[in-house]
Amino acid sequence: MTTTTAADVLSLELSEKVLARLATLGAAVPVGTGVPTRSPLSGGTLFELAATDAAGVAAAVQRAAAAQRDWRMVPAPQRGAVVRRLGELLREHKDTLADIVTVETGKIVSEARGEVQEMIDICEYAVGLSRQLWGRTIASERPGHRLSESWHPIGVVGVISAFNFPVAVWAWNTAVALVCGDSVVWKPSELAPLSALGSAALLERALVESGHSPDISQVVLGDRAVGEALVDDSSVALVSATGSVRMGREVGPRVAARFGRTLLELGGNNAAVITPSADLKLVTTGVVFAAAGTAGQRCTSLRRLIVHRSVKEQVLAKLTAAYSRLPIGDPFDSGTLVGPLISAKAGDAFRAAVEAAVGQGGEVLAGGNLVAVDGLSGVFAMPTIVDMPEQAGIVLEETFAPILYVLTYDDFDEAIALNNAVSQGLSAAVFTRDQQEAERFIADDGADTGIANVNIGTSGAEIGGAFGGEKETGGGRESGSDSWKAYMRRSTNTVNYSSALPLAQGVTFLS
Ligand code: UN1
């Protein structure tokens, strides 16, 4: 006889909630085996979905490739109209999709809705972009010649996304890829397949309503093997992958071996420098949101605080006071600011990191433990601050949990050196009212990250900028600015409208 635990009852409730939301979104749920769905609220399994096998991945890619051959000929502004419709549907169903995100990832309601808002934002951005896929005209050195460049759809884009932004990252890639004339095959995180099914259902509706093939968007479900099949498929022109550095190290060379393109968004080990002139009110809000928000599970989460010796005591007093008041609990409760970690494994990694930090001479100033939350059976970590004697060992690692390591500096050059002395290069921030320091931080010899902020934390980037980072973060850029260029192929065109054929560089041949 099996006994039903409180966690089982909660898992059942969450299953019902998520299935009702999926029905509202019009999503079919491929029940089967291979992909168990889970919730970090109960820590248990909800129900199981059918995994896509290798043949299924190949078939999905071929369907996407066939559909793309027509899609690429649809004028870009008309492709934009489909993305506009997707944005409208997301607006209409914002809270419904956000609820699924909360069930699957444990994100608090406000952040889950913020994630769907980020999807809406990128749709709107992509609609505008659909009329701005500009090439240039370049001065030719030859008379009667026009030199220009044009941008064309690249083909099938494979999107591999992570659990922490289970839907926004797909939307960044997909909204832009669609207006660029590409089709998309999505392999969502195996920890968040349900929010993927919900999002894809809305896109399918937008496509069908506008008279286009739903095959332009494909979802494949499963673990690593499914990701590998997608990565190795030579019909996938671009693999856009978000995840760990370890994952990127495998994906990068595999795609390169077949001369495919990659766009990699890997780990971060983001720091904020707190200078003597910093506005401490901004520091407190900025640091607490960046370090403890999303339970420290963003790539852009703040992990290192590089604080000037003269303000250290004051800064830490404010931060520890704020940390002691952070409500940890049910992410569906409106008062909660810190929800559960994604899994028991993440809880183990949190504990191991705190232990390692203490072993390396760290002093725990706030948090440090896992806590139980009434009525839920997931794993909850107390947002933690550890004062470290030096930047070494565990501080150099990205632990996906709310742990903030404190480092002390005396001289601004030293602060920049500490900021840059990690292998990742995603996001960095400086809090200062000194203009020289602010400018220096974002100058050529400043922070070496893809995102460098002044008087604002490391996380919570807007979609208008290019998102991504350097070094082991992978070098990719997605979302705004000119990131769209990664989703297109560039063609340089020389047109001779004269009756002579002068050769470039003054070469003479047959004349
Ligand atoms: C991520 O952490 O994987 O800047 C993406 C932010 C979000 C996106 C983060 N807009 O925090």
Automatic annotation (TrEMBL):
<dbReference type="GO" id="GO:0004029">
    <property type="term" value="F:aldehyde dehydrogenase (NAD+) activity"/>
</dbReference>
<dbReference type="InterPro" id="IPR029510">
    <property type="entry name" value="Ald_DH_CS_GLU"/>
</dbReference>
<dbReference type="InterPro" id="IPR016163">
    <property type="entry name" value="Ald_DH_C"/>
</dbReference>
<dbReference type="InterPro" id="IPR016161">
    <property type="entry name" value="Ald_DH/histidinol_DH"/>
</dbReference>
<feature type="active site">
    <location>
        <position position="265"/>
    </location>
</feature>
<dbReference type="Pfam" id="PF00171">
    <property type="entry name" value="Aldedh"/>
</dbReference>
<dbReference type="InterPro" id="IPR016162">
    <property type="entry name" value="Ald_DH_N"/>
</dbReference>
<comment type="similarity">
    <text>Belongs to the aldehyde dehydrogenase family.</text>
</comment>
<keyword id="KW-0560">Oxidoreductase</keyword>
<protein>
    <recommendedName>
        <fullName>aldehyde dehydrogenase (NAD(+))</fullName>
        <ecNumber>1.2.1.3</ecNumber>
    </recommendedName>
</protein>
<keyword id="KW-0520">NAD</keyword>
<dbReference type="InterPro" id="IPR015590">
    <property type="entry name" value="Aldehyde_DH_dom"/>
</dbReference>
<dbReference type="InterPro" id="IPR044638">
    <property type="entry name" value="ALDH7A1-like"/>
</dbReference>
<feature type="domain" description="Aldehyde dehydrogenase">
    <location>
        <begin position="35"/>
        <end position="490"/>
    </location>
</feature>
<comment type="subunit">
    <text>Homotetramer.</text>
</comment>
